[in-house]
Amino acid sequence: MKTNRFKHLAQANIARLRYPLSDPRMADMSERIDEMNRLAEESPGFVWRFKEDGSPENDLSLLSEYMSPCRESLLFFNMSVWKGEEALRNYVFRSAHKEVMRGRELWTERLEEPTLVLWTVEPGERPTVRESVRRFRSLRERGPSMEAFGFSR
Q1: Residue 93 included in any domain
Q2: Which of 46, 91, 107, 149 could make an SS bond with 144 (beta carbons 3.0 to 4.6 A apart)?
Q3: Are 79 and 97 a contacting pair, CB within 8 Å?
Q4: Measured between alpha carbons, how far is 153 from 65 in angstroms, rounded to an integer?
Q5: Residue in 104, 127, 120 with CA at minimum distance from that of residue 153
Q6: What distance in Å separates the CA atoms of residue 20 and residue 3, rounded to the nearest whole number?
Q7: What spatial distance separates the first Cα and last Cα of the chain, rounded to whole Å?
Q8: Dist CA 139 CA 149 (whole Å)
């Protein structure tokens, strides 16, 4: 299932943290969040990343419709848009981000639900948390489709 080369690729990922980000046991992760956000924003093919804006469509409590229990203090969520899958893969698997990913078992719980979802968006479109929940649920309930898929497809 190849994405249309004229569309952009949205990604959302979610994790349940073992401890709040302020806990000293999370320092190796929490100290690198700003660095990883900067790295993403400076990466070729990066378009946009989610930042909380207070709107009802972007309320992080909506994630409880997908992941339960969903205590916000233990929630890690991000969402971004890229010019294509190759640009996103380069950031995730071929940059310093890969180093951070190696330690994820120390910081996050293993979940049965899909924790990453991808879908195509029109250039200029900015997905919402509500939409990401719909995409996560589609992937969990129906498997990979044009509506929601993962890297492995």
Answers
A1: yes
A2: 149
A3: no
A4: 24
A5: 120
A6: 36
A7: 7
A8: 6
| pLDDT digit string, tens, across residues 18-39 | 999 999 999 989 999 999 999 9
Instruction: Please tell me the total count of domains within the chain.
Output: 1
DSSP string, 92-144: HHSSTHHHHHHTHHHHB---SS--EEEEEE-TT----HHHHHHHHHHHHHH-S
| Residue 6 pLDDT level (bands cut at 50, 70, 90) | confident
Q: Give backbone dihedrals phi and psi of 64, rounded to 5 degrees, phi first.
A: -65, -20
In a domain, 53, yes or no: yes
Tokens describing residue 93: 């698997």
Question: Is residue 15 within a helix (H) or strand (E), and if so which, with residue range?
Answer: strand 8-16
Domain enclosing residue 106, as ranges: 8-142
CATH of the domain at 49: 3.30.70.100
Low-confidence winner among 35-49, 54-68, 110-124 (lowest mean pLDDT): 54-68
Note whether residue 50 is domain-resident.
yes
Residue 153 lies in a domain: no
